[in-house]
Recover the amino acids of this structure.
């Protein structure tokens, strides 16, 4: 794969349009309502309208966050950063986190190669931005941004694909097990290709033969460490020991399923759809480089895929002896994170926050306060030349989200300069026939049915005329239409939002100040999709 970089250090980003999430396809009603600060379900903190509204949330968290948990967290982080070249900012952040008046703002994501798609950077920058703003607004408290590295997931295929400059990048490997333990063997060629086109050599951090966890830690530290971000690998034994009582109770009482289903029922009653369905047991067991799901069995429990069956007492003994081998799934990981972090806010995307909203009863069952869950920053980056083309065609960006037949019709009517608006004409004709039917009915009741039948025949003929006009227009402007489709596919690759497909690293290699530009555009308490034009 050939990568071409054009270094443009003076590129600026300017907001040209702001879309509420309700105008963006694929965004759930639940996520949209969260972004507007609506009460989704009881027990879920509302999105504050101003920074000062965080203070009672901060006090509540500090009142119940144990000093032991803080000490273990700080010690674990210091150990994980021990081999890194710490800059003074990260050292300062670790010192702040040790203070009893310090809380965290967090986000999390599964490990990915070369930083992943744009929205990963958007989450991280959202966390950093809110921490900085709260630090300025509430000087009696201290704030640190934390990125939780999800290294125990086992979806290897998901972490092996990335779009780089609109070209697919695939890491060919046959490894299995937790993604954090994967060797980066096989990434050297891709890393060298990226590094050869840029002065920045951070991609080579994936070519040292380390684990994916170690490489991702170093890579993100390179880009975000100087902005004050702390990263956490929560697989450490000292942290899993804090989670052990919850894990044991899950084995003994199966708490997660019943509590999550209770909240889910309330959400569904309010008209929302569930994002996840909890299992009877929501834990995995890590062993021999593999991650086995723990499932109930007639003899106790089974480690699915291993062939092992085990009694409840034996499983509890194994968990007590090796707590680091206990791995929560998506239903329990949020609870684990809020147990070990002094968190007051969590940033996530549509899917993440939708399932977090299902956990209010679960958190209450374990007396762990829920943080405010906030939609991460979302943006569509459009080049100046692309914006000029859309302006020339007189098409708003919302039009891009329409299905292709409606989009093609709207585009054709704009670009062809046809001296008529077919939709308006259709409505005018409909109104005219309606008035004629009323007149016929007043004249002679039997005439109304005749007029309606004539209207049906006329409508069919008119539809054929309209189709013929559009067909001729399509033929005349087919080249322009393909040009437009190419532009649309650039902005919405594979029909998805650009931020879900395109690697953020490419933007940074073209423009070293890109992260700072995005940071300056983030308004944490005003969620929505920003359209940013490069200039």
């Amino acid at each position: 794969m050939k990568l071409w970089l054009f270094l443009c250090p003076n590129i600026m980003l300017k907001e040209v349009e702001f879309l509420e999430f309700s105008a963006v396809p694929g965004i759930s009603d639940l996520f949209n309502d969260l972004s507007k600060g609506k009460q989704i379900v009881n027990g879920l903190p509302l999105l504050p309208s101003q920074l000062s509204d965080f203070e009672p949330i901060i006090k509540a968290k500090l009142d119940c966050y144990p000093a032991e948990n803080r000490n273990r967290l700080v010690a674990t982080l210091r150990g994980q950063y021990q081999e890194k070249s710490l800059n003074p900012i990260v050292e300062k952040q670790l010192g702040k986190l040790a203070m009893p008046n310090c809380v965290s703002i967090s986000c999390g994501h599964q490990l990915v190669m070369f930083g992943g798609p744009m929205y990963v950077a958007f989450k991280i920058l959202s966390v950093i931005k809110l921490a900085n703003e709260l630090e300025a607004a509430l000087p009696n408290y201290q704030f640190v941004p934390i990125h939780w590295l999800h290294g125990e997931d086992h979806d290897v295929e998901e972490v092996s694909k990335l779009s780089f400059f609109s070209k697919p990048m695939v890491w060919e490997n046959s490894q299995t097990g937790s993604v954090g333990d994967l060797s980066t063997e096989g990434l050297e060629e891709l890393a060298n290709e990226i590094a050869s086109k840029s002065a920045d050599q951070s991609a080579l951090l994936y070519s040292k033969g380390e684990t994916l966890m170690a490489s991702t830690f170093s890579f993100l530290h390179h880009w975000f460490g100087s902005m004050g971000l702390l990263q956490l690998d929560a697989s450490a034994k000292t942290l899993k020991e804090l989670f052990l009582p919850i894990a044991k109770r899950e084995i003994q009482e199966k708490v997660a399923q019943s509590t999550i289903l209770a909240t889910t029922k309330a959400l569904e009653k309010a008209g929302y759809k569930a994002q996840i369905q909890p299992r009877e047991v929501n834990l995995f067991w890590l062993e021999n480089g593999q991650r086995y799901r723990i499932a109930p069995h007639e003899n106790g429990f089974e480690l699915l895929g291993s062939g092992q069956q085990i009694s409840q007492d034996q499983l509890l003994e194994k968990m007590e002896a090796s707590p680091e081998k206990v791995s929560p799934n998506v239903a329990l990981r949020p609870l684990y994170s809020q147990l070990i972090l002094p968190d007051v806010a969590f940033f996530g995307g549509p899917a993440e926050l939708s399932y977090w909203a299902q956990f209010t009863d679960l958190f209450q069952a374990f007396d762990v306060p829920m943080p405010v869950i906030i939609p991460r920053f979302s943006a569509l980056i459009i080049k100046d030349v692309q914006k000029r083309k859309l302006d020339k065609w007189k098409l708003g960006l919302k039009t891009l989200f329409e299905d292709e037949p409606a989009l093609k019709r709207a585009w054709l009517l704009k670009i062809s300069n046809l001296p008529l608006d077919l939709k308006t004409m259709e409505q005018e004709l409909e109104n005219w026939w309606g008035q004629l039917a009323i007149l016929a009915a007043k004249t002679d009741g039997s005439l109304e049915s005749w007029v309606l039948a004539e209207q049906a025949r006329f409508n069919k003929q008119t539809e054929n005329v309209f189709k013929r006009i559009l067909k001729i227009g399509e033929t005349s402007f087919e080249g322009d239409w393909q040009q437009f489709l190419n532009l649309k596919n650039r902005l919405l690759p594979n029909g998805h939002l650009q931020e879900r497909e395109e690697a953020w690293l490419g933007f940074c290699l073209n423009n070293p100040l890109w992260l700072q530009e995005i940071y300056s555009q983030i308004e944490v308490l005003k969620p929505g999709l920003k359209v940013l034009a490069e200039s």
Q: What stands out?
A: Residues 1-7 have pLDDT under 50 and may be disordered.
